[in-house]
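Progress against Task 2.4 (sequence-to-structure conversion) is shown through the following example record, which the project officer requested during the mid-term review.
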Amino acid sequence: MKPSRPSRRSAGRRAGLPKARRAADPAPDGLTYAGSGVDIEAGDEAVRRIKDHVQSTFGPRVLGKYGAFAGCFRLDYNERLFKRNYRDPVLVSCTDGVGTKVVLAARLGVYDTVGQDCVAMNVNDMIVQGAEPLFFLDYIGINKVIPQRIEQIVKGVADGCRLANCALLGGETAEMPDVYAEDDFDLAGFAVGVAELNRLIDGSEISTGDIVLGLASSGIHSNGYSLVRAIVEKAKLDYGKVYAELESDQPLGRVLLEPTRIYVRPVVNVLYRYRVKRPVLGMAHITGGGLPGNVNRCLPENVDARLSLKSWKIPPVFRFLQKKGGVSDEEMFRVFNMGIGYVLVVRPHFADSITDQLSRAGQEVIQLGRITEGTGKVVLA
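C-alpha cells generated for the chain above:
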C-alpha cells in the first residue's frame, strides 16, 4: 500500500475533489464561494504543490492513499519495520503554535521557516517525557490561499518533521477572510509520540548533587515576539538592516526569524543508549517563562536547580534587544530562553559521557549548575 497524506482542506472542503463531482456553476449573477473570499481552485493547487514535501517525511509506518480523509500510522511490533519494540507503549501527545512570530514572518514575506518552529514547539515538549515522536499534523488559518505561500509554510513543516524523525501525517488549510486580515495567517500543530511505560521521565527521581546540562538555542526560538516587535517599534529599528551588535551578516529580520532548534535526534539517541540505567532524570524545553519558568516544572518540591549565569555566554541578539528596549535582566530571563533552549538533569556519574554524546551530535552543551536542597525553584546566580 502506498504511503499517504490525508487531504488538506480549504475552508472545510476536501481539496482535490474531481470537478465532475462539484456543484453546478451558479448563474452569472449568483453569489460564488470565490466571490465571498474563498478560492477553491487555489486550495487545490496548494495541495498539489505540497505533496512532495509531505511525502518526503513518510516511512514504512505510514499507510494509505494521499488525499484520504485521515492519515494511517502503524503501531505494531514488526521488527522488519522497526528498530525498537515497545513492550508497554504509552502514547504521548501535545499541541502548540508559533505565536506572534507569524506576524513578523508575514511582514517580511518569509514563510519557509515558521513551519520548523511549529514542529519544534511540539516535539521538543514531547521528548521531555522521554517519548519518540511518531507523527505530526498542522493547521494553517489564513486570509487568502496563495499556493506558493502555502507551499513554503508546509515545506518548513516538512523540514522540521524530517529533523524530528516523524511523519507529517495530515493537515488543514482554512481560508477565512472574515477572520484574518490581508496577509495574516496563523500556524499550529499537533504531535503524537510513544514511550515505554517504565521509561517515562517525570523528574521525580531528581536529588541533590545531580548535574544540570543546557543545550544552546539557535536564537529567540518562538516565544516573546510581542515584546520583540515592541522593542523594534520603540527603538525604530530596521528589519532589513545589518547591525554590527548582532555579530551576524544577516539583517535583523532574518536573525529574528531563525528557526527553533529541534533537539529530538540527539536527546532520543542518548535516552535509548541506556536500556537499563536511568541517567537522565528530568528535562525541560525552555520556552515562554525562560529558565526559571520551565526548569522548575521538572523539579521535586524538596530541591532547587542552582544555575550559574557565568557558565554560558548570552547570544548577542538578546543583549541587543535588551539594550534597545531598556528591558531589565529579570524580564529578559522571564520572557526569553537567553541562549539555552533545552535542559537535562543527569546523574553526576554520567554527566561527562552524556555531554560527550550530545557534543558529538552537534550540540553545544553547557554545564549550568547542580541540584541543591530547596523548595522546587530555579536559582540564577
